[in-house]
C-alpha cells in the first residue's frame, strides 16, 4: 500500500521461467522500481463470501435441471410394431442386411431347380421353325419376355438390322465331271457368291497341318476344289485355310465318323471368320445406322458349300490320283483307301445365296443387386436355329428361363440378396456367328468391361454324355473346378462331376482352348470379359434338321432332363458365387502361368539370335507376377467386411481381362484383340509362329514387323500389370 494507491502483481512460475528464458539469463529489463506485495484475497468479509457461495449453488442447480430435462428426451426409445418387447427396453441398433450363407444357397438352388420345370420349358420353347428374324423367332422372344415379366424382373430389348445369307430361288449346285451330283439343299452363309471350277483335292479336315502334309508331298492346292470333312474346327477356319493357299472352292461334308445321320441329310453353317454382322465390322447395326460401306476382313473370297454323305460318296469313290496319307481313310468308304484326286476329277461349284437384311431382337431381364447394382454378370443363350435346333438353342433357352425363375424365387421367398446384378439375355441370329450378341457388345463396347465381370453361355450345353468339356478364361478355372466338386453326377449321385470326368488332371481332361465356334468367344476376346461355356458332349448332328428332341434323347441315353438339371446347377452355383461373396472369385494368378508359357516359347526361339529386347518381355512378365502376388497379399491382409475396400479390390480384378486387349489394333481390322486368347498378328501365339517363319527363312517372315509386334505385345502385358497393381502411385516400372 502506498498512500491511496495500491498495486498487486502475481507471477506464475512457468510464466516467470518463460520470461526468464526469453530475456536470457533471467535479467528483467522492465523491473518495477517499487517493492512486490502479495495479494490479500483472503481478507474478505463474511457477507461477501456468503454471497459468493450462494451464487455458485444457484448456477449448479440451474445446470442440473437443464441436464435432467435434456437426458429425459434422449432416453425415449421408439418401439416399432415389428420390434420384440422385453422386460427391459433394448437399445435401437442398425438393422443388419440378411444374407444366406453359402451352404444355404447351394441347398436352395438344388431344391428349386427342378426337372419338372425344365421339361415344361422344353415343351413350351420347342419350335420347328425359328430362324433369325422370322415370325417364329419373334414369337419365342415374346414368350421369354413374358416369362421375365412374370418373375418380376426389369426387362428390355434391343433391335438390330443385320445382313444375313439365305438360299436363292435357284438352288446351289455341285457338278462332278460335268454331271450334277444329287440335290444340294444345305448352304453356308457368307460364302462368296459365284461359280468356279477346278480339280478335286481331298484334304481331310482342312486343318493347317493337313495342308502342310499335302505340301510335304509336293501337292499344289492352287486352283483346286478342296473336299474336307466337317468337325474339329469351324467351317470358317477350314475355308480360310484353303483360301490362303489359293484354292478355288471348298466342299464340306459330314463323314459318318463324326456324324450319325442319314446319307441325304443336309448340313447348314456359316463361313465368316469372325462374329457379328460382317457388313458392320466393329460397330453396331442399331436402327439402320449409317456408316460408310464396309465388310469384315473375315469374309471369304472363294465359294464354299456343304454336301451330303450321299453326294460326298458319289464324288470320292471315283477320285483318282495318289493315295491319301495314313489316317485319312477311316470314314465312309470302308475298307477302301481314299484317293486325293487328280487333274481329270473336275468339280464345278455354283453358289447362289442371297444377301438380305433382317430385323432381330435380343431380349433381356435383370435381377438388380442390393449393394453393387452397377456390377453384373450376364447369362446368355441363343434363341434361333436353322432347323428344329433342339440341342442348339431350345435346351439353352429353357435353362435360361428356369434359372431366372429359380433365382427370383430365392429372392422373393427365401431372403437371398445378391450383392451384384444378374442379367439374363436371349440372343438372336446366333446361327450366323453370334450376330445378336456381338452387335450388342459392339453397341456398348466402351463400358461393358468396366461393369460386366463375367459371361456364361448356355449354348449347346447338352449334346450327349460321352464327356464333359469346358472352355473359359483362366480367371475362372479355379471357380469351375470347385463347382464341379460341389455338383453331383447326373447318373451316379455318389460321385461329383469332378470325380466322374476330371480324373487326376482336371485341366487336361476337361478344359479346351476357346475358339471361334464357342459362343463365349466374342465376349472373351473382343470385349475383354471373363467368359465360360461348357457342355455334356458327343458327336452330335448340329446344323441339321435331325437336331430334335428324339435325337438328343438318343444321344444322352434318355438322360436329357437329368443332364439339364446338372448343367443348371453348375451355371447357378458359378453365378451365385460371383454375386454372393464380397470379393469376386476370379483368380488373377492363373494368368501368370499362361504368360510364362508364351514367354518361355518366345525366349527359346529368340535367344539363338540374341534379340536385345527380350529383357523387355521378361520385365513385363515379372511385373504381372508381382502385381498378382501383391493383390493376393492385399486380399489376405484386408478386412473383407469393409465394403469399400472390397470394391477397390474387385475393380483391380475386373481390369485384368480388358487390359489384355491390344489397344494397338482396330476392332474393324482385328475383332478379337485379346493377346493371349484372341486371333491375329498381335497375339503372342502369332509371335511364336512368326519366329518359326524367321527361323525357317519363309517368305512371309519380316524381322522389322516382328520387332514392332513384339514391342506392342510386351507393352500390352505391362499395361495389364499396371492396371492390376492399382493406382499410379503404387507402381514402380523400370521397363
TrEMBL record:
PTM description: Stearoylated.
CDD domains: M28_TfR (cd09848), PA_TfR (cd02128)
Membrane-spanning residues: 49-69
Region: Disordered, residue numbers: 1-39
One GO cellular component term noted in the UniProt record for this chain: melanosome
Domain Transferrin receptor-like dimerisation: 615-724
Record-linked SUPFAM superfamilies: PA domain, Transferrin receptor-like dimerisation domain, Zn-dependent exopeptidases
Membrane topology according to the record: Single-pass type II membrane protein
GO molecular function: transferrin receptor activity
Keywords of this entry: Cell membrane, Disulfide bond, Endocytosis, Glycoprotein, Lipoprotein, Membrane, Palmitate, Phosphoprotein, Receptor, Signal-anchor, Transmembrane, Transmembrane helix
Domain of life: Eukaryota
Function, in words: Cellular uptake of iron occurs via receptor-mediated endocytosis of ligand-occupied transferrin receptor into specialized endosomes. Endosomal acidification leads to iron release. The apotransferrin-receptor complex is then recycled to the cell surface with a return to neutral pH and the concomitant loss of affinity of apotransferrin for its receptor. Transferrin receptor is necessary for development of erythrocytes and the nervous system. Acts as a lipid sensor that regulates mitochondrial fusion by regulating activation of the JNK pathway.
Subunit details: Homodimer; disulfide-linked.
The protein, known as: Transferrin receptor protein 1
